[in-house]
Amino acid sequence: MESVRSIAEVMQEPDLELNEGRQSVPSVSGRLTLRGVTYRYADADGDALHGIDLDIAAGETIALVGSSGSGKSTLLNLVLGFVRPTSGRILLDGVDMGSLDLRTVRQHISVVPQESVLFEGTVRENVAYGLPAARDREVTAALEAANALDFVRELPEGWDTRVGQHGARLSGGQRQRLAIARALIRDPRILLLDEATSALDAESEASVRDALARLMRGRTTLVVAHRLSTVRQADRILVLESGRIVEAGDHEELVGRGGRYAALHAGSLG
Q: What is the pTM of this model?
């Protein structure tokens, strides 16, 4: 019955993404531009994001910080194309994303969320999910870069070990490293990290953080994080409040200003 309810929810969902006839995207450099981007959720009294102007260079790492409800996750969803701006434009490599086939755009994007989504199946099937032609050496390389190869080799059947529903047979750190391996094997040009280490203990976080550093190298990266260790190495930190960018700069610069970021640093980021 639960499966029937889930299917019914999908069938009744009115929003359908229309991609037919739109421009295919065979390759991406990763430059993102937001011009006057505003987004308001249906039936909301105010804007979740308002008048955002932002230029992100290919390969740049941007950290998004701010209190709950400040617009961080909405910004990630706009970049993914899960929602479209109420007004304004988002450009990928200089082209309005509204004119692009988002299915092809997402082939160049990987997401590592706070809670990794693993399916009932083997380690290999989870890492190579959606890539039926993935070769063994590619899976091995992704696991190694994600600091996951050693623990996978120790599993009863190696990467043929079934992980259980939602990865129940693995620890939180192990699940997150498999999520990173899944992102790595796609060699994305754009990477979105949404609280990717916040649910981990200190020991697991250190291993995952090292894997994330490899994953982020050379890729356009947007990081939503509360922990200072994930934020301070970003090229730029954007502080959002009530859907607006209120501060921007690197860690040392923002701490020195003594503004909103410095207060977050002294409190929840510390």
A: 0.84
